[in-house]
Backbone:
């Protein structure tokens, strides 16, 4: 299966979920992330504001802000396809940004080396922690930066996990995969994004 076919298959699976299944799956996934010792110990976390076809992790952002974690979310520099982690103090600071994804209106950039834990969305995953991104390489570039040291936690609905997904050497896997039904940890040989 090629990447494009895999993305279509995952999109088809997500579309087949009812609103109730999405809501219940999102809530279960958030509970699973909150139970991770890696997340609990993270003082500075990079989360994401979900798009319509992604698991809704908004409650995780709220919980992180309530418990005093330093929270940042991605802003996208479309010129050079660079992900910039921006500090977030409240969901009220968000406004539509690149690709229509909400971003902080004022970007207070956070140093990559300060981040302990990164929530990584993807179109899909396989049971070994390989991820199928959306094709622009934002997260792969970001996670390949020399100062990056955070735990990489992939999240998605269980239906986004395919038996196998196509990946290239520069497609970075996650350290942990969390869905509404599982928590899996992995050890991977090192991969880096070219450029």
Residues:
């Amino acid at each position: 299966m090629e990447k494009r076919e895999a993305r279509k298959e995952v999109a088809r699976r997500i579309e087949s979920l009812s609103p109730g299944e999405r809501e219940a799956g999102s809530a279960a996934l958030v509970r699973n992330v909150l139970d991770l010792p890696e997340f609990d110990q993270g003082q500075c976390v990079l989360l994401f504001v979900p798009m319509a076809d992604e698991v809704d992790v908004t409650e995780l952002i709220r919980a992180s802000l309530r418990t005093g974690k330093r929270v940042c979310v991605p802003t996208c520099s479309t010129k050079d396809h660079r992900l910039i982690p921006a500090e977030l103090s409240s969901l009220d600071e968000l406004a539509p940004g690149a690709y229509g994804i909400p971003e902080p209106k004022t970007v207070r950039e956070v140093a990559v080396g300060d981040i302990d834990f990164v929530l990584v969305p993807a179109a899909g995953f396989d049971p070994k922690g390989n991820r199928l991104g959306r094709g622009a390489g934002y997260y792969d570039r970001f996670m390949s930066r020399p100062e990056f040291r955070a735990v990489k936690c992939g999240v998605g609905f269980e239906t986004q996990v395919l038996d196998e997904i196509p990946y290239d050497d520069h497609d970075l896997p996650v350290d942990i995969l969390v869905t509404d039904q599982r928590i899996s940890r992995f050890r991977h040989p090192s991969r880096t994004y070219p450029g």
